[in-house]
Specification:
The protein is of the alpha+beta class. It has helices at about 10, 90-95, 130-150; strands at about 15-20, 30-40, 50-60, 65-70, 75, 80, 85, 100-110, 115-125, 155-160, 175. The longest helix has 18 residues, at about 130-150.
Length: about 180
């Protein structure tokens, strides 16, 4: 009887993590965009397919195969604001740290002169609708974003249900910058 080989995904695909902006291959453990090349696919070979998923590859432990952490975001959601790569999920993470804010938000990207400006429009939590509560929440979120992401943002805290709801995927980023040809 011939022993049966057990194939794993890495037997069929060669995964890499690249810098989403430069395309440079990053070392194991670095977060970046997942790219893979098929090794055994004959009918439709794929070479360095960019998934746009942000994750990191970790070295193998007891087994030789590398492990992939969960996907943390998408590179096509990335905004570059004054030289800093910013993802909507990073803004959302800072919002969730603020007790007076709900998870409903929208990010507006605009250009004033030559500089990009980011405005976070978010709803107040049901228990924090007074003007003083909303102002305090706006200041708290701006400080969290500046300290943890490294950019200054404007924050507009509206009343509950002031952010438009969508039937499908929520539109988190509204780009108001003029289109360059």
């Amino acid at each position: 009887m011939i022993p049966r080989m057990v194939c794993t995904s890495e037997d069929h695909f060669y995964p890499e993590i690249i810098d989403p902006v430069t395309g440079e291959v990053l070392p194991d453990g670095s977060e970046g965009e997942l790219v893979f090349t098929t090794l055994t696919k004959e009918g439709l070979p794929i070479i360095r397919y960019r998934t746009r998923d942000l994750t990191r590859l970790m070295p193998g432990t007891a087994r030789k195969m590398r492990r992939m952490e969960k996907v943390t975001g998408r590179s096509d959601d990335m905004m570059i604001v004054r030289g800093v790569n910013v993802f909507p999920s990073q803004i959302e993470e800072q919002m969730l740290r603020c007790d007076g804010l709900s998870p409903h938000y929208q990010i507006e990207l605009a250009r004033k002169g030559r500089m990009d400006q980011l405005m976070v429009k978010v709803e107040a939590a049901a228990h924090a609708t007074s003007d003083a509560d909303r102002l305090a929440s706006a200041k708290e979120l701006a400080v969290h974003v500046k300290n943890n992401i490294g950019i200054s943002v404007g924050v507009d805290v509206g009343l509950p249900n002031s952010i438009e709801r969508s039937q499908g995927k929520a539109k988190r980023v509204v780009d108001l910058r003029p289109k360059e040809d």
